[in-house]
Amino acid sequence: MSRSDRLAVSLARLVEETSTVYSLPLFYERLNEVINHPRSSIDDISKVITEDQGLAARLLRLANSPMFGCYAQVESITKAATIIGIQQLRDLALGVSVMGVFKGIPKDLLNMTAFWRHSIACGTVARCLAVYRRESNVERLFVAGMLHDMGQVVLAAALPEASRAILDEQCETGGLYLELERRHLGFDHAELGGAVLKKWKIPASIAEPVACHHNPGSAEQFRTETALVHVADIICHAMELGQGAEWVVPPLDEPAWDRLGLSPHLLSAVIKQSESQLEGAFSILSGGSDD
To answer: The domain 102-285: what is its CATH number?
Structure first.
């Protein structure tokens, strides 16, 4: 068995163990089933969402936030589904659900408040970039950006000793966390996060940008989405919007930037718009708490 085969088995085993210990709430599976059923109505979908009152409240607050810019008050999940879109609402429900899956991560491994601030900032910037590009279903970009570093949480939860060893070496050498992961484990958090999402049967339009956001050239199907998340992540690191395990700004993939065809002059407008939306989104998605 080659070294690459051994590493693949190791990654596969970690994904299998993680998906056994951690899973999305059952309501998310029911929501998918109802959405995919040809005879389901918006009322049927709304009923599933409102079974989780906490989730429903957060989705309504998001629908009424500056992110969506609705001129009329959105007072029900039914109206939110009509305005935002059913698939988009499903994607947002995924993002909210994942935030509740991983609990009890030691702060010396990952400060979850700073981590989610960075993650939500990345989603916000990715969404804004997608709006400027007039992409369809920009909410999937928000969720892909929000979940782009999910593999860091998986690693801290499943392999805390390995995670701590990587952090210690990062502290000593000042190297890229990403490169240290690859050296210690043979894979990185992007691959890990994408593999867990795939195991959870999350759509490839979200899973692939997560898996490839540090290596956009490896994306096969959703290359533009991957490039958007990649660029958004770098912007957030450069602007110090939150903090994940990475302490330095990762390198920019120039072909990914070229693929987007965006003028550098747009960046200041994107950053300004994103910052105006970030605090509200973070407050809503984190439950308004820094605990």
So the answer is: 1.10.3210.10
